[in-house]
Design goal:
With 163 residues, the protein is mainly beta. It contains 3 helices and 11 strands; from the N terminus they run H-H-E-E-E-E-E-E-E-H-E-E-E-E. The chain has helices spanning 3-8, 18-31, 104-107, and strands at 47-53, 56-59, 63-64, 67-75, 81-87, 97-98, 101-102, 109-117, 122-129, 132-137, 155-160.
């Protein structure tokens, strides 16, 4: 920096110091991050909120600890829906379908379900879930429609146990 620059622009930062300032800033930001930032630890078994709508299922947790879990399902759609909880080794989009319905007995162990949930209504079920891979899905189909709700995208995976 020239003597003129020092007198007229005392706030100008020396370009050679910029990398040092950036590194210092990053170290400061890292020191304020929580120790578990970015990790997905299982949440304690308890309550899981489920939203059923055309054509998706949303859950507020995807990794759970083994034990009792209460699913509160709300049908936010305009069609009748259901929520099937199945333990399986298959991915959520790999289920066998016949006649536009999932063949539940072929794909895994059904742990429980909320059947016939009308639009705008709530349903609940409490299950004791051991470790494993699970899928929630809707196995309904509207009369006159070739595809069932599962085929239209009403499915989501979750895990019980360590990530």
């Amino acid at each position: 920096m020239t003597p003129f620059m020092k007198r007229c622009c005392p706030m100008v930062v020396n370009i050679q110091r910029i990398p040092l300032l950036v590194v210092g800033f990053l170290l400061l930001m890292i020191s304020f991050m929580p120790a578990d930032a970015g990790s997905q630890e299982p949440v304690a078994s308890g309550i899981i909120q489920v939203e059923l709508r055309e054509w998706e299922i949303l859950v507020d947790e995807t990794i759970l600890k083994p034990g009792k879990v209460t699913f509160y399902a709300e049908n936010q759609g305009s069609f009748m829906h259901e929520m099937v909880v199945i333990r399986t080794t298959l991915s959520a989009d790999a289920f066998e379908v016949a006649g536009s319905r999932v063949q539940e007995e072929v794909i895994g162990t059904v742990r429980g379900e909320i059947e016939g949930l009308p639009a705008g209504k709530l349903g609940e079920i409490t299950l004791d879930l051991p470790e494993g891979h699970y899928v929630l899905f809707c196995n309904n189909r509207e009369k006159g429609h070739a595809e069932g709700h599962y085929q239209k995208g009403m499915r989501v995976s979750f895990k019980v146990g360590s990530p």
